[in-house]
Amino acid sequence: MGALKRCAAAAALIVVQSMGTAAQAVTAPSNASTSTSDAALVSQITSRLARANGVRSHFTQTQTLAAMKAPLVSTGSLLFYRERGVIWQVETPYKKTWIMREGGVTVIDAAGQRTANGGAQGARGAAEIAKMMRAMLGGDLSGLYSQFGVEARGTPSQWQMRLVPRQPQIAQALRGIEMEGGDFLSSLRITFANGDVTQYEFSGSAQVSGLAPADEKLFGTPQ
User: Fold this and answer.
1) Per the domain annotation, does 214 fall within a domain?
2) Which tens digits make up the pLDDT trace of 129-160?
3) Could you tell me the pLDDT band of residue 74, with boundaries at 50, 70 and 90?
4) Whole domain around residue 154: which residue ranges?
5) Structural domain total, the chain
6) DSSP states of the chain as a string?
């Protein structure tokens, strides 16, 4: 799924590389682009998201591209487990699995063939993608303020967040990110600088206290 990798790679540019997988407190920003009230709500949101050690969910991805007459839609499931990483499985219109761990990304095709991220540069990019995905799903948004103007509204149980790039380098690729959720992330909308939009809708999200044997097999040896 090139769409996921493209979206994740673009979003990964916005997250500081030191961002870890454990949730951290979000302190009030020193810049004027984010209000103190927004920062307080973001802190409450991250604390709420961080309650779950693991989350299993279904997703629908809709890509709206300027070069395409009709949106591209795919569906599947994901598993986030804080100590191990993210398993992202596309089920329609094709089958493919991405396993995102601290060390990078492994792809499994429909035939069961595994391919690890190749090359030093590819490995670094894949590792950033993995960290970004784990951070966002785990409620670790502590690196946002150095890269974004952050707007948040609603309540911790029903919130919306909008991220606008503050750095010119990021703005060249990304126009903004919008998120909604409550106890779990329910939607993620990425708007690229060229006007392309990728929307993720998450449903049936539930906490996971342990990994099933099939999940352990996909993750492989702990890193």
Assistant:
1) no
2) 556 656 666 666 666 667 778 889 999 899 99
3) very high
4) 2-52+59-70+125-203
5) 1
6) -HHHHHHHHHHHTTS-TT--SS--PPPPPSSTTS-HHHHHHHHHHHHHHTT-SEEEEEEEEEEE-TT-SS-EEEEEEEEEETTTEEEEEEEESS-EEEEEETTEEEEE-TT--EEE--SHHHHHHHHHHHHHHHHHHTT--TTGGGTEEEEEEEETTEEEEEEEE-SHHHHTTEEEEEEEESSSEEEEEEEETTS-EEEEEEEEEEE-SS--HHHHHHH-S--
